[in-house]
Specification:
With 137 residues, chain A is of the alpha+beta class. In chain A, 43% of the residues lie in helices and 27% in strands. Chain B has a 4-stranded antiparallel sheet with strand order 6-5-8-7. Chain B has a two-stranded antiparallel ribbon with strand order 1-2. In chain B, a hairpin with a 5-residue loop joins strand 7 and strand 8. Classes of the chains: A alpha+beta (137), B alpha+beta (182).
Chain lengths: 137, 182
């Protein structure tokens, strides 16, 4: 009777370890594809390329729904996700870190998160491009 | 019974070795796929070349500011970067840390149609150290990944007096620190 009990415990431990192992693997894969670091880099480079090609008086809308979801998950205000300092785009989707990338187009850009009628973020980000030194009307 | 226990133990060890190998493979694949940063320098150099072309000619005619007394205006090379609204400042993280290296370079050459060897006029700005990278034959991509990315664009345009010019634009982007795995 004692021996049977030992075998059962061994099997349970073996199964639990297997499950733990596989779930860590799946979690790792899921986190890598939609991780903060990867999205921050993607968005900042995308935004820099868009601004480089933009001309003054353009209004550009960009879908950042995945970023919005991630920012909400990390308790970070989506409206603060994109900052433009000088000619550098800084994207932050959590309280720590952030990714910056510079653009060469010498324009003023105002980024803000678009909201719907219920004053909730839609996941779209708006970039207003203006000539350098020209005030917003 | 002892033999069976022994076989079971061996089987579980074998099983864990297999799992470790599979997990190692998955980790390695993911690391290789997501590890290196996205390289956007080719797109960036293409955009820069397009912007320069837009700045030189409109509807196939070179801007009149490029000429003075039916000759190329040398003063335009001083103001070209500003005129095109380019700002070559970069964020921290490039160069050796003490001094921020300029990560851009461009060169524009104007060739009269009767002499396509010697340029009638040329102008450039940015970090000329990057230019050499464009002429290195990149046979093995991995070894040369840290070199700057270049884009050459050529087009024809008419001058002030109707003369035809071949315009060659070379745009170069460094920025390997943020686009290539170090």
């Amino acid at each position: 009777m004692k021996k049977k009990g030992t075998i059962l415990v061994e099997n349970i431990v073996f199964i639990i370890l297997n499950l733990l192992f596989l779930s860590i693997l799946v979690l790792f894969l899921m986190r890598q594809g939609s991780g903060v670091i990867l999205l921050e880099q993607t968005y900042s480079k995308q935004i820099a390329m868009v601004i480089d090609s933009a001309k003054p008086d353009m209004i550009i809308k960009m879908d950042m729904y995945k970023g919005k979801k991630l920012a909400e998950k990390n308790g970070f205000d989506f409206n603060d996700a994109v900052k433009i300092e000088g000619n550098t785009v800084i994207v932050k989707l959590s309280k720590k870190g952030g990714y910056s990338y510079s653009f060469f187009n010498d324009v003023d850009v105002s980024p803000y998160a678009a909201k719907d009628n219920k004053e909730e973020y839609t996941g779209m980000y708006v970039f207003e491009v203006r000539e350098k030194g020209v005030e917003n009307e | 019974m002892n033999n069976k226990r022994g076989t079971d133990k061996l089987l579980s060890i074998y099983w864990f070795v297999m799992l470790t190998l599979i997990a190692g493979g998955v980790f390695a694949m993911v690391y290789v796929f997501y590890g290196p940063p996205y390289d956007v320098r080719e797109i960036e150099s293409e955009i820069l070349a397009e912007r320069i072309a837009d700045c030189i000619s409109k509807q196939g005619t070179i801007d009149s500011d490029f000429f003075i007394d039916k000759k190329f205006n040398p003063a335009i090379s001083e103001s070209f970067t500003e005129r095109c609204n380019f700002n070559f400042d970069v964020e921290k993280g490039y160069g050796n840390g003490d001094t921020e290296q300029i990560q851009y370079f461009y060169e524009v050459e104007f060739y009269a149609i009767k002499d396509l060897v010697n340029p009638s006029f040329s102008l450039n700005d940015g970090n000329s150290n990057w230019k050499g990278d464009c002429f290195i034959k990149k046979e093995n991509k991995k070894e040369y990944a840290r070199l700057a990315k270049c884009k050459e664009k050529r087009f024809y345009a008419l001058g002030e007096d109707g003369d035809q010019y071949l315009i060659k634009i070379l745009s170069v982007i460094g920025k390997s620190e943020k686009n290539v795995k170090q």
